[in-house]
Amino acid sequence: MELGLENDLIIRCDRCSSIHIIDKDSLDVDTYSYERNMGFEVEYVFAGEYSCEKCGNFMHYTVRAYEYPVGILNYEDYESRGCTFAQAPSIAVNYYEFDYRNYEEVEIGTEVNRAYLNIYKVLHDREEIYNLSSREFEEFVAELFRQQGFDVALTPETRDGGCDIIATKNIGGLPFMLLIECKKHAKRNPVGVSLVRSLLGVQADRKANKAVLVTTSSFTKPARQFAERQQHLISLVDINDLMQMIR
């Protein structure tokens, strides 16, 4: 989903009471994210300024909307200086239309049993994860997310469209989609920033709520710094995070 202004702003100058209509697309838009107990809260800030054509009064206006948890419009507020809102601003919630037809979903009946067995093995011996094939690791990760309440689908081993797993669930009655990429690397072979950038591009193209990159190794410092700058759009899961998920 994406939050935006539903209509143009209508403001009244505090000095001369003249009415002005502000094009909603003329406002600056910034987003900020904060981690809370139910995940990230995303703050959308729509701000602008305008000089009254009649009296020269300088006016400022700001509208804020908060998405928490991700996928839910929590609340909204607004403030102004030098003017008053003649009509209360309203927030529009734009939902992405998810189209899974580009993916040839793989049946994961027997794969679930195999993945569950592998999770049991890794739980008792961390080194067992390095004995998995790349496909078994994808099944392994898919099962972890399935146990967190997601509906999961493995993409084909070739021509996978840039991700290995599509995980979906409804949050508060709204669709939420994760694109998950799995990288089975040796312990001393960290994932670099280029793979993180590539996955972010897939996330943007598919209009998913979030992308997740999971590896059996670690991430380079540039990779982590890049992911942090993307705020709520991408998460990195290294071997230590993965073991925590299993526990």
UniProtKB/TrEMBL annotation:
InterPro entries: Restrct_endonuc-II-like, Restrct_endonuc_IV_Mrr, tRNA_endonuc-like_dom_sf, Type_IV_Methyl-Rstrct_Enzyme. This is Restriction endonuclease. The lineage of its organism: Bacteria, Bacillati, Bacillota, Tissierellia, Tissierellales. Keywords: Endonuclease, Hydrolase, Nuclease. It comes from Soehngenia longivitae. It holds the Pfam family Mrr_cat. Coiled coil: none annotated. SUPFAM superfamilies: Restriction endonuclease-like (SSF52980). Residues 130-246 form the Restriction endonuclease type IV Mrr domain.
